[in-house]
Amino acid sequence: MIQDLKIITVIGSGTMGNGICHVFAQNGFTVHMMDINQVALDKAMATIGKNMDRQVAKGGLTEEAKNAAIGNITTYTDMAEAVKNADFVVEAATENIDLKLNIFRQLDQHCPPHCILASNTSSISITKIGSVTKRANKVIGMHFMNPVPVMKLVEVINGYATEAAVTQLVYQLSEKLGKVPCVANDYPGFIANRILMPMINEAIIALQEGVAGVAEIDTIMKLGMAHPMGPLQLADFIGLDTCLSIMNVLYHGFGNQKYAPATLLVNMVQAGCMGVKSGEGFYKYTAGSKDLVVSSMFASKEWK
Ligand code: CAA
To answer: What is the pTM for the complete model shown?
Structure first.
């Protein structure tokens, strides 16, 4: 029952992990945020504080509610400690299958038997993740969108063995967090990334073929389709390494050439251009500046 979910452990304190901790803490849950090093956890706490300050400044949160929410979060570097009393775990580690399988093996070992194990994976099979545990019926996908405090959607993914009662609980839990849950079945990329990533990949192929420049491709999609960001800016925002991992899951999962990752995407990731997090992708990012500057590699011609 939803009232029985009191202690939530979030594994991983990166962009998604700290956003997930933020919304659970803001909604009154006791949150255990776990990562392998304290420096990452301290950085995540600072990010949560900064994002909540933004909500306070805009009038969406009171100073007292912010302090209470921050007080709901405790940080851990030891997984066994972080999960020993957990009712619900959300794993939000890097999008790497071996890493996730290893985490779920450990979670199964250290979590209490009643604890539900959710993954924020954006494309990896929930059935596969569940198969390395002895509780596949309690393993489910709970896919939040970035930025987590702002985006309304939670994609809920049923693995082959996920119990209907667990799906219902995650549905209700998402609503309690103020989100809109949508349930999908376990196929590569589920729904969100099966549709989003091929669009981003196609934008990169169009750039690679010289059909148009970065600014033109993004402006066409922003103004023509009313998207808040163009696909290339969104790729930078998600992280080009994450985009590549998801395209590879689609490509290998369906065995269909139409999902082959763009060569330019592969090259950029190999060159360390990951987007916002590395400071450069299709655009160049300078700390403290909101200006959108096209990376010099893709500087467009002046038509005016
Ligand atoms: N925490 C809290 N609040 C935040 C925030 C954060 N991290 N980031 C932005 N906000 C708030 C701002 O305070 C602002 O609030 P108000 O509406 O009350 O003024 C609002 O969000 C808008 O922010 P900004 O004014 O700074 O900037 P913006 O209008 O350009 O919006 C954006 C920023 C919300 C990111 C918008 O550009 C957007 O929606 N972009 C697309 C995001 C998207 O598609 N996300 C999904 C990515 S795919 C994914 O996550 C899944 C996957 O598996 C890959």
So the answer is: 0.94
